Structures are given as structure tokens and as C-alpha cells.
Amino acid sequence: MYQSLSVLLIEQALTTRRLGHPVVYLERIGSTNDVVLQRAAAGAPEGLLVLAEEQTAGRGRQDRTWWAPPGSSLLMSLLLRPPIPAARAAQLTMCLGLAAAEGVEQISGLRPGLKWPNDLLLDGRKLAGMLTELRLSGDQVAYAVLGLGLNVNLEFTSPDLAPIAISLQMAAGHPVERLPLLAAILERCEAWYERLLAGESPHVAWSARLDTLGRRVVVSLPAGTLEGLAVGVNAQGALLVQADDGQVSTVWAGDVSSLRNRTPGGP
Q1: Sign of the CA dihedral 99, 132, 252, 161?
Q2: What tens digit of pLDDT does each residue of 108-165 get?
């Protein structure tokens, strides 16, 4: 039986001033990102947090579904209204990725890595995914919705998921309380966000956490595939891939797989 949450318990656990105020807690919803997008369009304030126990239409990048049994995970979305140009929008995802990794480390002692562009990894398997959705006003960010799905207390046993997905409970060997984890992630996210608003980029710290760098990768792109060594990321978050002929390509979006981790016939 999972620990029941409530708006009151969440508010009591949070230490943030900006993020997580107000809180919306839902037992079951299609997608927390969709709820925040709707409320943002209606004028909801920055800091709005929507948290759900279960999502029926949760999605990751490229509209992939996100599976999480009720009460097993942290399924959340945040509303930000940063006065920044669209060119810096990827830094918002960097803030959330760093916050999630640091929050997990603080509460569990485990040290996740980041997979470009927006996953958390433990032991080479997916621990969490993020999805940032933007609305622009000209070349400025009008608002951003940052979604996070983090596997906390569940077991992946199916042949399809067990080799590629992991939870904190699986890695730590015991259940992990979600409220302290939520509070730690939001506290770290607020700290990184305030640094971003002050003009500081999270790029250096984010790139230092990237498990993708230094690996030989294959990138799936709409026009085909690109294979090479992931040699870095630029300040806007794009991945730099060096081909065997030495040419470096800048990848702004795409699915990345480490060649070392690929299985015959796998993705």
C-alpha cells in the first residue's frame, strides 16, 4: 500500500518560496502537463505544481507513453514564467534534470546520471524522464511547463522493461518516501532556477552529469541516423557528435542510444 498524499501534506513538506505554490493534487489524470498547460493559458501563477498518483495519458518525448502504477512514482508538472529568450529555454530542462539528480542523491544516496536530452539513468537504465513544453511570445518564453516522471517504488519484471528501466526501490533495496524526495527536488530546482534568472547558466553542471558524453552513440533523426562520439554539448543544450571523419554535427533533437548498450535487433 502506498503512502497517501494530500495538498496539506505536500505543502507542509515543501521548503520552497516560489515553486510548488499553489499545489494541485489529483488521484488520477490524463497528463499533469496537460493540466498545467490549460491552467497556464487561463492565467495560473508561476510556481503552480500539479502532482498525480496515476496518469492515463502520461507521455514522454515524441508522445511515448509513461507507465506508472498508482502511487508508485512522482508524476508532476511545474509552471514557470521566466523572462528569458526562447534561445535559453533548454536551460529550464537543465535545471529540472540537475534538481532531480541532486534530490535523488540527497534522499537516497544514489547518484543518477543524465542522458541527453532529458532522462535520468541509474546503472544504465531509465530512472526518470522529463518533458518541457513551451509557449512563446515572439522570441521570448511566455511560459514553460516542466514535467517529471520518476520511478520510486515499483518493480520492473517484464522482459520488455526490466532491461531498460529501474526504480529507486530496486536500486536501494528498500522503499523510498516520496514526500521528502519531492521536497528535495523542488528545493534544488528553485535554487537552479533562481540562478538562471540571475543570468547564470546551468550548462557546466548539467554537462558534468551527462552520462552520454564520451560514449559512441547512434542518433535517430527524421532524415536517418548519425553515428559517432558524443564529444560535448553547447550552451543551448545541443549534443555535439563527432563522426569518424572528424566532422562534428550539432544535434538539437533526436533519440540517442549508446552503441555499447545496444542489443542485436534492439533500438
Answers
A1: positive
A2: 999 999 999 999 999 999 999 999 999 999 999 999 999 999 999 999 999 989 999 9
DSSP 45: P
Q: Which domains does the chain have, with CATH numbers?
A: 7-208 (3.30.930.10), 216-261 (2.30.30.100)
Looking at the DSSP bridge assignments, the partners of residue 28 are 54
Which grid cell is 148? 517529471
Closest among 72, 118, 73, 80 to 98, alpha carbons compared: 118
Distance CA 28, CA 53 (A): 6
- pTM for the whole structure: 0.92
Task: Give the residue from 4, 18, 6 showing the smallest Cα distance to 191.
Answer: 18
Give me the residues paired with residue 256 across strands: 219
CB 42 within 8 A of CB 69: no
Q: Are 246 and 255 in contact, with CB atoms under 8 Å apart? A: no
Strand, coil or helix: what is 108?
A: helix
Pairing of strands 49-55, 23-29: parallel
